[in-house]
TrEMBL record:
Name of the molecule in the record: Ketosteroid isomerase-like protein
Entry superkingdom: Bacteria
Ranges for domain DUF4440: 28-133
Keyword Metal-binding: no
Keyword annotations from UniProtKB, A to Z: Signal
Signal peptide (from-to): 1-18
One family name in Pfam for this protein: DUF4440
Alphabetical list of InterPro entries matching this protein: DUF4440, NTF2-like_dom_sf
């Protein structure tokens, strides 16, 4: 009996990590649309992808709320160039998805050019049938 329970647990644990291709494609499309909304400074589209209890931990360890995160992205002081994500990966665990990758971002802040390279992880949770981002953490990569 104990062996059967362990085998069942192993099967369930393995299945939790293997996301259906359709779900992975849906989450990738959602993440890509969010990136485009960020570059376009589309406040409504940025916020629509986020849970109300969203938190970001930035490269300096600061914590941002949904409101402060969105405000920081749409400020006229910030201009982001279009960017792509490298090493994109989606891992799904039930109603939670971890989306990660690397980004080389360029743009201007208060008229001054900048360039960053970082790795990120976005945590999405399925609530009420919709996937919403609840957390973002970024880590700078030294080139």
């Amino acid at each position: 009996m104990k062996r059967r329970a362990l085998l069942a647990l192993a099967v369930v644990a393995g299945a939790a990590q293997a996301a259906p291709a359709g779900l992975v494609a849906k989450l990738k499309a959602q993440a890509d649309a969010w990136d485009r909304a960020i570059v376009a400074k589309d406040r409504a589209a940025i916020a629509a992808n986020m849970a109300d209890d969203f938190r970001q931990i930035d490269a300096r360890g600061n914590v941002e709320t949904k409101a402060s995160f969105v405000d920081g992205l749409v400020t006229p002081d910030l201009v982001l160039d279009p960017y792509t994500v490298e090493d994109f990966e989606v891992r799904v665990y039930g109603d939670t998805a971890l989306i990660s990758g690397r980004t080389r971002m360029t743009g201007r802040y208060q008229g001054q050019p900048f360039s960053t390279h970082y790795r990120y992880i976005d945590v999405y949770v399925k609530r009420g049938g919709a996937w919403k981002i609840v957390s973002v953490q970024i880590s700078p990569i030294k080139d």
